[in-house]
Design goal:
Helix content is 57%, strand content 16%. The protein has helices at 2-22, 46-54, 63-67, 71-93, 107-145, and strands spanning 96-99, 102-105, 147-156, 159-168. It has a two-stranded antiparallel sheet. A two-stranded antiparallel ribbon has the order 3-4. The radius of gyration is 25 Å and the shape is rod-shaped. Mean pLDDT is 78; it is low at 19-28.
């Protein structure tokens, strides 16, 4: 069981590192430069972020951060959650040592289990809090530096006129 979880963690880390290299956006050769990625200018809902953090986030920590488009933090949170699950499984599997008719209880396994439970709880709380913070920062960026579209009326000699306003701060 110990080797199984170790191999799963190694596979997850390899997938994470290959994902980081696959997300490289720029080439250093002048002929193959790509455009910078566009910024998503739609505001995000804090209630949907909370939903993603709490409901699917209970099983897979970092879902709220994925909704908030914080992919690096989400990957780290998922990795720490995998480590916490490994520690919990290790503690459950290795809490008893039997020699003949005598049973010994391993206190190190209990400590690993408590550490795993603490990490599991901490990553879930971190997901909830950082999702709200990231969504707030994203929405503030859009509000103060992004695009804005205003619709209103303007009074003139012909009567009220429907107006559309578009502004872009840079």
């Amino acid at each position: 069981m110990h080797k199984f979880f170790t191999s799963i963690i190694i596979i997850l880390l390899l997938c994470y590192t290959s994902g980081l290299t696959a997300q490289s956006m720029y080439s250093f050769e002048p002929n193959t430069l790509e455009k910078e990625p566009e910024i998503a200018l739609e505001p995000k809902s804090k209630s949907w972020g909370l939903f993603h953090s709490l409901v699917p986030g209970l099983a897979l920590h970092g879902c709220g951060l994925l909704y908030a488009e914080e992919f690096g933090r989400a990957a780290i949170t998922m990795g720490v959650e995998a480590l916490s699950l490994y520690l919990i499984c290790y503690a459950v599997e290795n809490n008893e040592i039997r020699h003949g008719c005598t049973t010994y209880y391993d206190m190190n396994a209990a400590a690993y289990g408590l550490l795993g439970i603490g990490l599991f709880s901490t990553t879930w709380i971190y997901d909830v809090v950082m999702t709200q913070k990231s969504i707030h920062e994203h929405n503030e960026f859009i509000k103060h530096r992004g695009f804005s579209l205003d619709i209103g009326t303007l009074e003139n000699s012909d009567g009220p006129t429907l107006t559309f306003g578009f502004s872009w701060r840079f």
